[in-house]
Amino acid sequence: MYDKILVPLDGSELAEVSLPYAEELAARLGSHITLIYLSRSEKDPSFSRRKEYLDKVLGSTKGEMDKLLEKPGEETKIGSAVLVGHAAEEIVKYADKEDMGLIVIATHGRSGIKQWAMGSVASKIITATRRPVMLIRAKEASPDIRKMGTIKRLLLPMDGSKESESILPHALEIASNFKPEVVMFQAISLAYPTYTADAFAYVTYSDQQMDAMKASALDYLEKVGSSFREKGIEVKSDVRFGSTADEVINYADEIGADFVAMTTHGRSGIGRWLFGSTTVRVMKGGNTNLLLVRV
Q1: What is the pLDDT at residue 146?
Q2: Which range of residues forms the domain containing residue 90?
Q3: Spans in the chain with pLDDT lower than 70
Q4: Which of 15, 90, 103, 281 has its CA 20 to 30 A from that of 289?
């Protein structure tokens, strides 16, 4: 599934926080990593310096991957490329051309992905690509992440739809190799919309209705979590009432999730969601790394 992993870099230490995650993924899954750096033109005065930087990072990344390889005779699979052109466009084109299974990219700055929704490289990549994207929040990255391990607790928000369940094969692939604690989660609205001839309003569920809905949701989460248990992976389930995005953000912080894994819905994918849906609200307001898979 993730035979090839693409890691875009821009020469900053913030961008390099994505490397430990890509390294561990590649070592555990046997993937090939490609590091890429973008240049506007080969005539750019800094073109040669960028290639030197990329060669340096390539060497250090290979060294870290060598430490992670467990089987005798295993070889580190890693390469690099300097692309010329507009960053987001070239990254998306390269990912398609080389059939990349995953793009791992860091979020920059204090505002994280919130800043990128205004038109930066990462936001454009998320909008344009159909490849799974792993977003690493630079502001939350730990300098000891290589010692601690990158994926110890994985949060899977589900809403009962087939679209949300599209994340399950991806989560199962990661969980089978990292053996994290997997938490299946569902948030349920506190009220439902009602319409009359001349009005629209929300009606709060009764206590009995909420109890029944919670029991049904827990039963559903237990069922979708069965494929993980069959592989010996620890799975927990929880249900909360409230705004879906807010509950996902707060719950991820509460349990100390390393990743929230979610799908992007709809024909227009995440491009549509830049206007306020659950996933983009989690991207903007959350503190946890994300794995986004387009349905």
Answers
A1: 76
A2: 1-150
A3: 71-73, 108-119, 140-143, 196-197, 265-276
A4: 90
Q: What is the dihedral of CA 289, 189, 207, 198, to 10 degrees?
A: 170
∠ CA 244-246-251, nearest 5°, is 95
> What does each C-alpha distance from 85 to 36, 51, 124, 125, 228 come to in angstroms?
12, 15, 14, 14, 42
For residue range 123-144, what is the model confidence (pLDDT) as tens digits?
A: 778 878 899 999 998 775 666 7
Q: 291: which strand partners?
A: 134, 261
161 and 293 belong to one structural domain: yes
The answer to whether 41 and 131 are in contact (CB under 8 A) is: no
CA pair distance 153, 173, nearest whole angstrom: 14
Boundary residue ending a domain (150, 181, 214): 150
Beta strands at 191-195 and 200-204: parallel, antiparallel or unpaired: antiparallel
Q: What is the pLDDT of residues 200-213, one digit of tens each?
A: 777 888 999 999 99
CA distances from 189 to 240, 243, 266, 272 (A): 9, 6, 21, 22
Q: Count structural domains, the chain.
A: 2
| Predicted pLDDT at 267 | 42
Query: For 201, left (φ over 0), alpha (ψ -120 to 50), or beta?
Result: beta
CATH code of the domain in which 71 resides: 3.40.50.620
Single-letter amino acid code for the residue at 193: P
Q: What is the pTM of this model?
A: 0.87
H-state helical runs in 98-206: 113-116, 121-128, 145-148, 162-165, 168-178
Distance in angstroms (rounded) separating the CA atoms of residues 252 and 118: 25
Quote the tokens at residue 233. Answer: 């992976």
